[in-house]
Amino acid sequence: MAAPSRKRSTPAKKRRPRGNPQKPVGGAPQAVAPATARDWIAAARIRTLPLAITPVLIGTGAATLVDEQLHWVIALACLAVAFALQIGVNYANDYSDGIRGTDDVRVGPGRLTGGKKAKPRTVLIVALAFFALAALIGLALVIRTGQWWLLLVGAVCIVAAWFYTGGKRPYGYNAMGELFVFVFFGLVATLGTTWLQVRSLPQEAWFGAVAAGLLACAVLLANNLRDIDQDRLAGKRTLSVLIGRRATQVLFTVFVLVPFGIAVFLALVYPIAWLTLVALLGGLAAILIVWTYRTPRELITALQVTSFTSVAYGALLFWAFAG
Fold this sequence. Notes:
The chain is built from 12 helices and no strands. It is an all-alpha fold. The chain is globular. The N terminus is likely disordered.
């Protein structure tokens, strides 16, 4: 009897995986798309630029108390320097925080370096380019006004901008950010604008400089309150990490309200300054958010509202001085 024939087995065909064959499987890291123009604009943090406008407005308004003629060219040059420094420090922060790993997990807008969207060296070069632009415009201002000693002030501003989060011991990591913001975004920016225009510093410029500095500090506090948990884990000892949430909320409230107290005082001599109380509506909205927020993302709105409250305050105080 013949043995039953056996069918020759053929190996089963391997099924090709569905989807993109280049897509990594398992726990392999996903490729990150390179930064787009929108990413670079977002990294410049345009919403913080009002902080550069406020001191120039107040400083220019104070200058008109000494000389009624508006020195628009100098004022616009001061604004350009402020913008370049602000954008430069934002890119520098992106670079420094990114290489330290501070931005590995973010609540706020994504970053170029931390998000692996751009090479750290590229971000650094862009930051340095904006610092160089600020230096060139500042040099032109010095040449035009003959105030050569301001070259030293400009150099200190650039160094301070870099060491906010750069270097081995950044002061922004040691609860000193608000102090330096008050000095450079308040006193230096406002008084420098006034001095370059009229070579004088009336007391109104000092009052306005304090107000501008406090509002800038309020914006930084809102930012640091948003990132308080992430910063604590990353070892970044901001003022908010050091004093805690409740004290940060109280301090934010003080920083927002004191400038309007200054405006009320100035309104005794410059009645138009009463109109700054219109901007207080934005400040009160920001305070409400800071005290009632449930998720850190809500503080992004508080940051934005405070920034625009600052520029509205500056515009109205300019009107009070120049009107």
